[in-house]
Design a protein that fits this description.
This protein folds into two domains: 2-169, Ribonuclease iii, N-terminal Endonuclease Domain, Chain A (Orthogonal Bundle); 174-281, Double Stranded RNA Binding Domain. Helix content is 59%, strand content 11%. It is built from 14 helices and five strands. The strands form two sheets. It has a three-stranded antiparallel β-sheet. The chain has a two-stranded antiparallel sheet with strand order 1-2. The longest helix is centred in the first third of the chain and has 22 residues, at 59-80. The radius of gyration is 22 Å and the shape is globular.
């Protein structure tokens, strides 16, 4: 109680003033350490040099926020789904913290209007939004502690902007699904970046491929390495789902045939991919 009272007293001079007001509208409380939140909104393209000579941007806070968010979501899911197994909890957490979800949440919160960036075209750099959200969570953790960070994630992000039941029905992480399939069939799944370039607006573009059992079966492009991996995995999953022959080729290449004369690999239906395709076609 005393700590809350002290915080309210300290916040009085900042009420209604920028940038405190903008962060209050997002967070629901006035920050104590405002420089942390400014740093959380500073993209590396607009890095500033500190008095100690260090270039300051939100990458370090993003690293911290990523870990804190994982822990908080794991904490929430563990308590919400008491009878679910580890696989379900891991999969659900992956869907909540995946970049696409974080980007959407960041924009809904209005972080796109607070981000400081010299990048010309933010429309093609949507991961900037999700990165900033993770950095913001890192700032909350350092400024207010784990309890307040957890309250923000649960009360603001999940309850107001994210329906867990909807998340459970949403598209899964293609890369994780493909890796899981490879593990079940004892087949190596390897992703690698094949090219890195810039588009007309000087935004970085990455090309990646995925090899399953030594066979390249998918490639994709994206404005981050993660996004290009997801696109490559999506292509690979479609090919695997549609072709038993391809699975047999991979089995032979990977040496599965030697231990299994029938060349039988566990065929995964990838139900989430089927739902996603149906939605696109309708």
């Amino acid at each position: 109680m005393l700590r809350r009272f002290v915080k309210r007293i300290k916040a009085l001079p900042h009420k209604g003033k920028e940038p405190y007001l903008s962060f209050y509208n997002v967070l629901g409380f006035y920050p104590d350490w405002i420089d942390l939140y400014r740093e959380a909104m500073t993209h590396r393209s607009s890095s500033i040099r500190s008095s100690k000579g260090r270039w300051v941007n939100n990458e370090r806070l993003e690293f911290l926020g990523d870990a804190i968010l994982d822990a908080i979501v794991a904490d929430i899911l563990y308590k919400k789904f008491e009878h679910k197994k580890e696989g379900f909890l891991t999969s659900t957490r992956s869907r909540i913290v995946q970049r696409e979800t974080l980007n959407k949440l960041a924009v809904e919160l209005g972080l796109d209007k607070l981000i400081i960036s010299s990048t010309r075209n933010l429309a093609h750099n949507t991961n900037i939004y999700g990165d900033a959200l993770e950095a913001l969570i890192g700032a909350i953790y350092l400024d207010q502690g784990y309890r307040v960070a957890k309250k923000f994630v649960y009360e603001t992000l999940i309850k107001q902007h994210l329906n867990i039941e909807t998340v459970l029905k949403s598209e899964v992480d293609f890369k994780s699904r493909l890796i899981e399939w490879g593990q079940k069939n004892k087949v190596d799944v390897l992703f690698e970046v094949t090219d890195a370039s810039y588009d007309a607006q000087n935004n970085p573009v990455f090309s990646s491929c995925v090899k399953v059992g030594g066979v390249e079966i998918g490639s994709g492009k994206g404005y981050s390495k993660k996004e290009s991996h997801q696109m490559a995995a999506k292509v690979a999953i479609r090919k695997l789902r549609e072709s038993n022959e391809l699975q047999e080729v991979i089995a032979r290449k990977a040496g599965t045939a030697a231990s299994n004369p029938d060349n039988h690999m566990e065929k995964t239906s990838f139900p989430d991919l089927e739902e996603e395709q149906t939605t696109e076609e309708s």
